[in-house]
């Protein structure tokens, strides 16, 4: 018992842990919606008073006792027996609230689970609308229909009172709504090829917050404010909003779809507040600028996004049209809603639902995952609530659920493994599909993971969240995962799920085509996090308005002339200063010690815990006999080795982009990187003759083909380079993060082992 509680206290760090465990102020991706005070962790607050924990143990143990007794004994420290009963359940509710957020592990010490039976009074009631024969045009009779039906609004205030997450999110949404209240309506801004997508998503974000806040208060000021926003986006406000015949920019249909969704939510959620005139105005605007263009898109070649587009476009466009149709079904008698539902649902099933490939990877990029899954989740949820079925959207692809696994593993210790394009601003787009998927696919760890994130607080979470969830997402979670589909082969390896300072390395191979033209020529690319900082990182999107940026993914595409998309702009091997072959088809191999984290947020990595991933990336290059690249963790996941075996007829470069300040030793074979007050040492092992680290700015070579317009600058980024002439080499670069308190003598120097001979024990 003592060991666990000490661990939660956050003061017994692993020997070389560098700072606060888990949530600290400087956190990047894994950060709470409302960060605790500087340098204090919630774990300290709740972990130190052992007495409080004993009380919680007694109460929660009473509620969850029968479960807890079957869980691992090392994590079951409550053992208060099954006192059971209603009284215990209601005190569990108050304890749950008392303990607060980020506290699940202390609360139950069980692996993730949904446990509705013992937590009945903390759960959603069953939806009274259970049609025996669901049909897309047979909608529930009460409003709202979309995502948040009446019976949930009735229950929500109670759940908020007993669930700390719902409580915190509710407060944040109210705060956000108040902030938006004081702003001018969203101003029309045509952003070239990106259209008015930001405008659409910002309007949608505001409408969700206004409508939510109204329904929680009955204060009509929120309805009035929502109306001002709708009027503005209909072109009936005080400032102009786009051309009269096409205000929602149907040529870039994502914009149209997101506006349609915003109007659908306003219409449906605030239905009882609108006068008949207002209702008819909202409908007429939505039909003219959203649904009618939607029919054109869905029945002519204009709708290119319907044809084999397994990516965010298909999800977002079909979802917006579906929400709009569901909102007005029955009120509008033209038949357009019925017509569209007959087109959007089968099309999304045949395309959007396939954007998760069989290993769970989202076929576009880690950032486009947000847009695509938000569309998929909104559409599935709206169909479920409005009509009682998702018509297969959630399960036609038996591997769709794995996209939750993808998202967890593509999230590094500081931020995403954000290869390829990053997409436009997110506004109404979040990762909260994880909360819906957690519930729908019975993967509570998705819910537990997402509820800790900064973007969890928004109206959808309030209705998707299953408050009977308990446990900790990291409890039993493997530190490594390998994604093997040939399209996106990649590896994710880390030293902890709950330490912002953890080591995280991710590397990809995969194809250079078939990725909705959001990828880079980046076979072999990697990111590295350690000590709370990203040492090897991505440059992200180029300017989407650059000519031919999205033209195609053939070898001679202008897209591959922009530095951020070229191979030289990636953290990989460059041959002859030339782009990779777009026809690359690498093969990979990997293994892992299979280490899983336990229930504690402080994880002491066993010394023999390791993982490695190797790829034959020869096919990605011209003018080579062979190129192989491997990455592995060493020394209990405190060091990383990247090894390249290259036989090339042309000159090569090893390249890595970093925000760090780089200082190269006189020998030229080691470099010291400094960033955010931390240090990373890089050393070449058995360096080939003449191999030396050099640096350059992140800019194109003067000899590169000229792009249609100049590149975006990459200020602050240094490229760390090893240049070598044609030849046959084994290049080994050892990454030693300077963990606080770890003496130099504790770093290991691994033997040289050829990639083909790597195994879990080959470097012991
Ligand atoms: C939601 O948050 C608002 C603002 O903090 C608060 O006034 C309201 O009481 C909360 N709702 C519930 C049901 O607690
Ligand atoms: C919503 O409020 C939270 C808490 O104040 C804040 O961190 C967040 O940035 C706000 N979100 C938006 C979109 O304004
Ligand atoms: C708002 O009004 C509805 C309908 O009259 C009512 O059921 C609900 O309890 C009210 N909510 C609040 C927060 O007053
Ligand atoms: C905006 O004005 C047009 C033209 O009067 C009208 O047809 C439409 O219904 C109005 N829409 C809204 C949302 O006010
Ligand atoms: C979509 O893909 C299928 C299978 O690859 C193919 O048969 C079909 O022709 C494609 N449709 C379009 C419109 O490209
Ligand atoms: C540099 O830092 C920015 C901001 O955190 C980040 O977005 C970018 O990916 C980093 N670049 C590199 C090369 O690490
Ligand atoms: C691909 O795009 C480039 C311009 O970026 C163009 O020159 C080329 O013809 C296109 N190829 C195909 C097959 O469309
Ligand atoms: C791999 O290991 C075996 C057995 O130790 C050895 O015979 C072989 O030469 C090694 N292969 C390479 C490529 O080093």
TrEMBL record:
A GO molecular function annotation here is: lyase activity
Q: Where is the composition biased (Polar residues)?
A: 130-139
Tell me where the transmembrane regions lie: 46-65
**Domain Heparinase II/III-like C-terminal intervals:** 499-701
User: Among its keywords, does the record have tRNA processing?
Assistant: no
Keyword entries, A-Z = Membrane, Transmembrane, Transmembrane helix
Q: Where is this region: Disordered?
A: 67-86, 122-142
Subcellular localization, as worded in the UniProt entry: Cell envelope
Q: Looking at the record's lineage, which domain of life comes first?
A: Eukaryota
Q: Does the keyword S-adenosyl-L-methionine apply?
A: no
> Which InterPro entries does UniProt cross-reference here?
Chondroitin_lyas, Hepar_II_III_C
Q: What is the recorded name of this protein?
A: Heparinase II/III-like C-terminal domain-containing protein
């Amino acid at each position: 018992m003592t060991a666990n509680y000490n661990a939660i206290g956050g003061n017994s760090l692993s020997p070389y842990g560098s700072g606060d465990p888990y949530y600290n102020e400087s956190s990047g991706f894994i950060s709470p919606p409302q960060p605790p005070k500087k340098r204090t962790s919630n774990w300290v607050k709740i972990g130190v008073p052992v007495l409080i924990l004993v009380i919680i143990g007694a109460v929660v143990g009473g509620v969850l006792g029968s479960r807890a007794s079957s869980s691992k004994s090392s994590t079951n420290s409550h053992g208060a027996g099954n006192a059971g009963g209603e009284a215990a359940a209601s005190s569990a509710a108050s304890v749950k609230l008392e303990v607060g957020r980020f506290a699940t592990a202390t609360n139950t010490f069980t692996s993730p689970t949904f446990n509705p039976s013992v937590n009945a009074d903390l759960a959603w009631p069953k939806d009274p609308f259970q049609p025996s024969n669901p049909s897309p045009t047979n909608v529930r009779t009460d409003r709202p229909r979309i995502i948040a039906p009446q019976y949930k609004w009735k229950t929500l205030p109670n759940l908020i009172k007993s669930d700390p997450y719902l409580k915190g999110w509710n407060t944040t949404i109210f705060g956000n709504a108040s902030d938006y209240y004081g702003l001018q309506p969203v101003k029309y801004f045509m952003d070239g090829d990106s259209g008015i997508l930001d405008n659409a998503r910002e309007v949608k974000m505001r409408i969700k917050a206004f409508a939510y806040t109204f329904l929680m208060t009955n204060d009509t000021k929120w309805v009035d404010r929502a109306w001002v926003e709708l009027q503005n986006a209909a072109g009936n406000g005080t400032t102009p909003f786009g051309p009269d015949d096409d205000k929602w920019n149907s040529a870039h249909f994502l914009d149209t779809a997101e506006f349609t969704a915003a109007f659908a939510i306003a219409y449906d959620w605030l239905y009882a507040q609108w006068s008949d005139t207002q209702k008819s105005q909202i409908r007429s605007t939505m039909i003219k600028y959203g649904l009618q263009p939607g029919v054109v898109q869905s029945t002519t070649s204009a709708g290119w996004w319907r044809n084999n587009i397994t990516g965010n476009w298909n999800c977002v466009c079909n979802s917006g049209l579906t929400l709009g149709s569901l909102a007005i079904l029955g009120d509008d008698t033209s038949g357009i809603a019925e017509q569209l539902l007959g087109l959007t649902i089968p099309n999304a099933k045949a395309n959007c639902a396939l954007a998760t490939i069989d290993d769970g990877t989202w076929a576009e990029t880690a950032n486009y995952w947000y847009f695509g899954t938000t569309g998929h989740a909104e559409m599935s949820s709206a169909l479920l609530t409005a009509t009682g079925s998702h018509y297969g959207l959630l399960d036609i692809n038996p591997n769709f659920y794995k996209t939750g696994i993808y998202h967890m593993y593509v999230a590094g210790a500081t931020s995403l493994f954000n290869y390829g394009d990053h997409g436009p601003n997110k506004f109404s787009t979040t990762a909260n599909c994880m909360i819906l998927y957690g519930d729908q696919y019975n993967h509570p760890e998705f819910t537990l993971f997402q509820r800790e994130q900064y973007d969890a607080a928004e109206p959808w979470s309030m209705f998707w969240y299953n408050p009977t969830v308990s446990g900790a997402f990291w409890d039993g979670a493997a530190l490594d995962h390998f994604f093997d589909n040939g399209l996106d082969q990649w590896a994710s390896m880390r030293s902890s799920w709950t330490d912002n300072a953890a080591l995280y390395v991710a590397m990809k191979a995969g194809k250079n085509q078939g990725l909705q033209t959001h990828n880079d020529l980046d076979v072999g690319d990697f990111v590295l996090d350690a000590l709370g900082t990203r040492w090897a990182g991505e440059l992200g999107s180029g300017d989407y308005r650059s000519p031919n940026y999205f033209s195609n993914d053939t070898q001679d595409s202008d897209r591959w002339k922009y530095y951020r998309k070229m191979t030289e702009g990636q953290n990989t091997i460059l041959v002859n200063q030339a782009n990779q072959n777009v026809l690359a088809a690498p093969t990979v191999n990997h293994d892992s010690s299979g280490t899983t984290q336990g229930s504690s947020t402080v994880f002491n990595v066993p010394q023999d815990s390791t993982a490695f991933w190797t790829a034959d990336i020869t096919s990605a290059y011209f003018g080579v006999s062979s190129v192989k690249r491997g990455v592995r963790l060493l020394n209990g996941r405190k060091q990383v080795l990247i090894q390249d075996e290259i036989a090339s007829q042309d000159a090569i470069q090893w390249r890595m982009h970093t925000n760090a300040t780089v200082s190269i030793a006189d020998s030229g074979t080691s470099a010291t990187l400094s960033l955010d007050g931390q240090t990373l040492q890089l050393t070449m092992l058995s360096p080939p003759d003449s191999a030396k680290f050099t640096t350059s700015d992140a800019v194109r070579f003067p000899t590169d083909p000229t792009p249609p317009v100049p590149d975006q600058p990459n200020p602050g980024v240094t490229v760390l380079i090893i240049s070598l002439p044609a030849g046959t080499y084994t290049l080994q670069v050892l990454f030693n993060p300077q963990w606080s308190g770890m003496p130099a003598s504790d770093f290991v120097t691994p033997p040289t082992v050829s990639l083909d001979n790597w195994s879990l024990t080959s470097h012991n």
